[in-house]
Amino acid sequence: MFSLWGTLIPLILGCALVPVQSVVTILLLRAENGRPKAFAWVLGMTGARVFQGLIFALLLHTSSAIAEDADDGPGAVASFILLLVSLTMLLSALGAALKHGDPDGPPPRWLSVVDRISPANAFGIGIAMILLSVKFWVFTVGAVSAIAGAGLPLAERVLSFALFIALGESTLLALLAIGFVSPVRSAALLDKIVGWLVAKNRILVMTLGLVFGLWFLVKALHGLGVPS
User: Fold this and answer.
1) Angstrom distance (rounded) from CA 134 to CA 30
2) For residue 105, what pLDDT is reported?
3) Pair 94, 222: CB distance under 8 Å
4) Could you tell me if 114 and 28 are in contact, meaning their C-beta atoms sit under 8 angstroms apart?
5) Binning pLDDT at 50, 70 and 90, where does residue 225 land?
6) Do 36 and 30 meet the contact criterion of CB atoms below 8 Å apart?
7) For the ranges 36-45, 68-77, 125-134, which has the lowest average pLDDT?
8) What global pTM score does this model have?
9) Which candidate among 64, 82, 206, 225 keeps its CA 20 to 30 Å from the CA of 200?
10) CB atoms within 10 A of CB 173
11) Burial code of 128-143, b = ≥16 C-beta within 10 A, e = fewer?
């Protein structure tokens, strides 16, 4: 269990601290009729993550069975997935260091029309945000592979993945709570948060990518039998 959460916690932090999600959530909360839009946006991302988890749980079960037949064991599958997570995060850090735009960020034109989108549009954009982002795909498959490799009963696997989603969206849920509980009083605070996130986006992406990328690289190489 300790080994499982040693893998899940960095993935959860990676999900929770991606700046663009928080920026969009705040912009939607601050838009006209923004609370239903922000809620639909987060709900769309949640549904997409559940879909990813179901798909990868099925694929990982199949690939693990094949690996066991080939005498490689399911641990090799999980280690290759962690290696993919590592490379994705290190490339993200490199892109930020070279001042490339965030590939997971929404188009600037979309951010200027948040007042005109509907909750249904926000729901669809939330789905697209997760399904079109390589970063979020590898976060989810990394979590699913870690949970599948932990040898837990089915109920505990489902609970662990539900916790991964909930904790990975904890930042967004906190912003929603602030916006729903006190929409008027929270306006200045939300504006300050979004200003800070936009100003520090490059540093945050670079730091998260480097720290967690190296962490998962070490874990992947260890799982593949490469001496550290």
Assistant:
1) 28
2) 56
3) no
4) yes
5) confident
6) no
7) 68-77
8) 0.81
9) 82
10) 16
11) ebbeebebbbbbbbbb
Q: What DSSP letter does each residue of the chain carry, written as one string?
A: -HHHHHHHHHHHHHHHT-HHHHHHHHHHHHSTTHHHHHHHHHHHHHHHHHHHHHHHHHHHHHHHHHHHHTT--HHHHHHHHHHHHHHHHHHHHHHHHTT---TTSPPHHHHTTGGG--HHHHHHHHHHHHHT-HHHHHHHHHHHHHHHTTT--HHHHHHHHHHHHHHHTHHHHHHHHHHHH-TTTHHHHHHHHHHHHHHHHHHHHHHHHHHHHHHHHHHHHHHTT---
Percent of the chain with pLDDT over 70: 84
Which amino acid belongs to residue 6? G
Beta-carbon count within 10 A of 68 CB: 13
The answer, yes or no, to whether residue 106 has pLDDT greater than 70, is no
